[in-house]
Amino acid sequence: MASIGGSTAVLNTAHALGLVDSPAPGKPLTIKPASGKQKKIVILGGGIAGLCTAYELERVGYDCTILEASHRIGGRNLTLRHGDFIDELGRPNYCNFDEDPNLYFNTGPARIPGHHRRLLGYCKTLGVPLHVRANESRLAYCHDTNAFGGKPIRIGQVISDTRGFLSELVQKGVKADAFDQELSKDDQERLMAFSKFFGDLKDNGVYEGTTRAGSKTERMLDHSTPTDTLNFKEMLKSNTWWSAVFASEHYDWAAPVMEPIGGMDRIVAGFARNIKSPIYLQSQVQSIEVLDDGVTVTYLNKGKIKTIKSDYCFNNIPAYFMSGIENNLSKPYTDALASMERGHLFKVAFQMKKRFWEEEGIYGGISYTNQNISQLWYPSHDIHTEKGIMLGAYGWDTDRALPLEAMELDERLKYAASQGDKIHKNYSSYIEAGASVMWARMNHMMGCSAGLPEGREDEVLSRLYKPEGRHFMIGDQVSRHSGWQEAALASAHNAMNQFSHMVTEKNA
């Protein structure tokens, strides 16, 4: 199983056979039906956590109202298509992709791991069809301007040669009796056999290349000839080899990952179809007052100040905005909110007039580079059609993001295109249109993947996991896995479970 599907296949098979525990599903959501008079809920923010909260609470009889500061719902679940408004601070613009439903760009979340059970469960319940997204392609590239003369290398070769070189070291270590733990003769023979197979070594324990990385001859008609091996010292110089070798081993990136057919915002649409609660867009919260018997929220809607009184409040507003919103929350609580930093995740995408990457054998997957664009993603859908949307940059490091955030849109697109040219020949010549989302500049968001203060993570989360009176903080920001929709749902479920317990005690 390992030789066919890698470590993830082994793990999933072991789960199926009951040899190891499956991923923990989390606490089930249990909300008792509404009773009594206190049924009014105000939800601040129409992101995934807010939509989930409205969906679940109205199903058990609560009267919910959603206030959303933006012109749309979904939060960072934003898929761009032809004509969509990009609300970047100081640089508002519109997406100029062709008017084609399959030419879209997932600007925030773009993949769903198989162990994100809450999100997958909602996709099933809400009727959101999914397909598998190729998160890895061994024919995609690993590129480092400081290694191999800046030439892009196929990921398959990097992986195969890395395994070969390390397996050869294992063989040498066994022969030299270099292991701290004494190995029996049988153990040594097994380890030698394993490393020989794992690295595709010769009988003498030396790595001389492998056809696993490809062949220099036409392998359908001739004997396969291993590609030339990479220089191991040159590989060690590279800062991107770890991405090529280990990215698919990350628990949240391991195959298979999925995406909704037609774009990630199909999840937002699925919630919207099944929510009856009123949603007020362009409603910026001005103040939050937590009282003994409820919560009063003042907000600005279409130039008018309005007030809503509710029995309970679920707050999905980015934590770092709360210091600018008048409130009577306790100082320890507001200090915890203020300690969270805004992330600088960004993406750039290009409409390509030709799916040139397919001519290079790349069907989905990711290429990695040490340049500021970090990654190129290839679409898994609409194979062999004329055009496609390629992700031309994806970064989350502040140092990489700041230069792009400061650029005008055209300058930003040219910058990303020029770096793509170093990975694919004539890359920029295929570009017809481009779009970018710098999340730290997007109105009403001003960040993505909130950062917990280093060394104080437990303290901050222990405070925000709990309600402040009748006020509950929700969203992926109130989790240990910020940036994932599953974390947003986990946070909402946690808050609703506590809410249900609170209501039960009050009605006892």
From TrEMBL:
Native source organism of the sequence: Sessilibacter corallicola
Protein's recorded name: Tryptophan 2-monooxygenase
Annotated family: Belongs to the tryptophan 2-monooxygenase family.
Domain of life from the UniProt record: Bacteria
A Pfam family this chain is assigned to: Amino_oxidase
InterPro entries to which the protein is assigned, alphabetical: Amino_oxidase, FAD/NAD-bd_sf, Flavin_monoamine_oxidase
EC number: 1.13.12.3
Signal sequence segment: none
